[in-house]
Batch of 3 targets.
Target 1
Amino acid sequence: MSGKGHIRIMCTRPCLWMTAWGLFLFPVSAFALEQATHLLTGHTNDVLAVAFSPDGRLVASAGTDQTIRLWEADSGRDLRVLRGHLGAVHALAFLPNGKLLASGGGDTSVRIWDVTGGKELRALTTAFGAVRAVTFSADGSQLATGGNDSTFRLWDVASGRELKSVRGQFGVVFALRFSPDGKLLATGSSDTQVHLWDLAPGRQRQALTGHTGAVHGLAFQANSQWLASSSADGSIRLWDLERNEEHLTLTGHKGEVYAITFSPDGRSLISAGADGTMRVWDVASGNERHSLGGHKGPVWSLAISPDGALIASG
């Protein structure tokens, strides 16, 4: 078992693993820990966010050591370190064309980085409180951010101008996702609800209720019909947005569920949580297919490669 700040690369295919303080990349088809072939060092403390570039060639990671690292997905090579945040980095998102990376941190800032050169291009500041979620719209024109100030904001990516600010009674915003069709923004927050916002008129469409704890993770299926949410109550809920109702509740994690993502084909849902496990679920039936351990502590974040072959977790 590797220690703090290490990355382990595991085969049958090139795959990376860092323990609870790092990054874990493994073949989706295997779902098993196999003999390590490489051990890399990287972050010096908890990794809170991971993201694949749209072409699947890069993995970005960030955490409480205030740095962002870019890795070559196939080899696990550490390409560069991005420094600028003055607090923990909670969230990462690549622009759909892969040229820019957005990060949100405990220093109340959102920073935009040039992926190729690693240069910070812009810093967007919020009123107060940590920024815990960032996400780009499918067309790359807008960036949504949210965090401790009970507000979510929409920004124009090209200019950095704030387009809209919505402050509500929903508490800390832990998760944000644009629907793939660009019509909705979903927010998950400490008020235990999932809020759906119509982007064209700019108003709330619905609040989805059912969770009994803060909503930490959100994921849209590619067809925009299904939305998954994960919560501090230990459950994952699958929502049918055409019928505006809960379709399935998935249970199995022993503790809070921090992160979820759909496989590219939409047939599987992957979750991660405080119990140190990642679980793979069949979307059609709600049955658990696999459970993967190995982390020494909570799994805060995960991402799946665009081809569905690898999962990264931190």
Target 2
Amino acid sequence: MNITIVSQTEDTIRFLIDGVDTAFVNALRRTIVSEVPTMTIEDIFYFDNSSLVPDEILANRIGFVPLKTDLESYVLPEDCDCEAELGCPRCRAVLTMDIEAEDETINVYSGDLMPDDPNTAPVSEKILLAKLAEGQAIRFEAYAQLGKGEDHPKWSPTSMCVYQNVSLVPVTEMEKARECVDDCDDAAVIEGDYLKIIDIQKFDSCKRCRDLVPHKQILENFKPDEFLFTVESTGALSPENMVTHAVKILKKKLATLEERIEKDDIHDEISDFETPEVDEGKLYSVGTEDYDEDEEEGFEEENDGFTGE
């Protein structure tokens, strides 16, 4: 397996991965999206919210604010031995908000969240959360913890994580191919008598390139073992950190699988399925109160003479 970085910025990395199949790159993609943990607000205790935004709606907005994540300083709640409902300094971070509109209407932004630990501050300070009219205020204490995207999308570290096959197309007009490569930057390169198309979308956006190699020809010449992988971060983690951590998770899972195969322990025990008993009297009851059969009988007696007239 060979990996070549095509481009890298603060929040995006694009790299070629060669010598693997679709199953492997899809496993890597799913691991990055679903299993690389990030820090996100999970619990909020309101002291005051006189804004027009209901508590639960505001909490939902705040929960999706990406926070900087330090995987060296914090652990997942299930891996912490504190057993506290709201966690401890090892598995949770505290952020507060105390803002009030005094003389005019103001906007409340993610930058108004004050973290106890600067390493868990919001990635962006300009995410709009609410508006406050004169005299309105928002005050709360929030607890953030590590979590995984498989449990809730707010913990997913990526805003984009995709891969696509590389295409190796034979060309006869080499001069036009060179002009195409010059126009499209890193979308394609020349390899011998072939044009290696790395980024199909970028390649197709160039008219000169489209005229040289039709889209159908690109699809017919896919390489089954080479892919362009693109990872864009929400800012919680750097893209290279996300990829590295995902690889570690995959290696750990494969090591566990190998160990179980060696022990011939690859089949989990399946317990008998038990059908839960349903109290039909409560099936359509309204609210959360206990169903009272005596009250129901009294109601029927009171309405025995009711004819609907």
Target 3
Amino acid sequence: MEFRQLNAFITVAKLSNFTKAAFELGYSQSAITAQIQQLEKELGVNLFERLGKNISLTSEGEKFLVYAKQIIKLSDEAKNNLSTSDVVKGTLTIGANESLCAVRLPPILKEFHERYPEIEIILKMEGNNKCKTLIRENQIDVAFIIGQKINDSELITELEFPEPLVLLATPGHPLTSKKHVHPEDIAECNIIVSEKGCGYRNLFEQSLNDAGVTPKSIIEMGSIQSIKQLTMSGLGITLLPKIAAAEELKRKQLIELQWWEDSFYLTTQMVYHRDKWVSRALRAFIDTSKEMMKS
């Protein structure tokens, strides 16, 4: 098994086309085909299903793609970490959910890029559970997760801080006239939430369930921006990280409702796998993140 074969396999899988993969890698199509055939012969499985001009990964190909990416990534990390140069290089893959990608990470990434311009950054926007899976599969190096405090022996938490949440409504919504909002007040309201598995959706729904309250309806949206837009339109109320709605609150496009008991809080945590090889690039990112969040 050779690195050129792995690179050919990864590129064909990405482009779903032998001709395009050959062009991208600077090989002839026949050379790419031969490399894939050699790899399939060594592994004893078909990696691609070929139907006319259409190709797709087989189930074995899907599984092997994870390992192929890990092998290439570890090779690149080894080269970068064994380099005698003082310049930190490499590729860093970071996972985070939408709200953190939009608000928390930009200033960190900007500062990190200014300090380490030779490090390539790949940002994957995924939910909490998906980020944990990608960490375990070594497909991302580090993740920012917002939710309950993580108690997982496989994960190391390098940074954590409280993330306040706010209950939001449009100006003029009936609940804005209340000094405090109780769970039963929400029984006649639509609640606008993110996809299942999101930490703040789980917290909101659990709070209502504990009080025996069922909202009028649940409207699920795929992005925070769409949640805010629907809430501003008056369709319902929502619970979001305060930092994600800071501009709308400042412009009074959204109003913070006062919950009847202690405010909602979750924790934002930066985690990586306990068996992860902490490269120079990863250590630099961890240190920069800690410095930025404490400033």
